[in-house]
Design a protein that fits this description.
It is a single chain. By secondary structure, the protein is mainly beta. It has a single domain, classed as Jelly Rolls. The protein has two helices and three strands; from the N terminus they run βββαα. It has helices spanning 89-92, 97-101, and strands at 2-7, 18-22, 37-42. The longest helix has 5 residues, at 97-101. The N and C termini lie far apart (31 Å). 4% of the residues are buried. The model has no long low-confidence stretch (mean pLDDT 86).
Amino acid sequence: MFDVAGDIRKNSATLGQWVCVYLSAEKKKQLCVPEDFARGFYVTSNEGQFVYKCTDYYNPKAEVSIDWSYATLNISWPILDHDLVITSEKDSAGLSVADFLK
């Protein structure tokens, strides 16, 4: 799994910067993502399981999706064919970064 965390804090000096790591059952690594950062992932195998911890109870009203393919993010997703990417309905309707930051 290709896991990405990006700084989306409006007044941050590192706004728009991101880091990534490949996660797998074999490597047993984790990525700790601070509050107010965006997180996205791409399953690089035929299937994947994703387990994560949160700092509070799940609140769907606080959730926002940002368009993963938005060019200004410049994320180097390891995708060979964008036409084969499957996203959820929520993620398919993701905001642009500019709209999110309004």
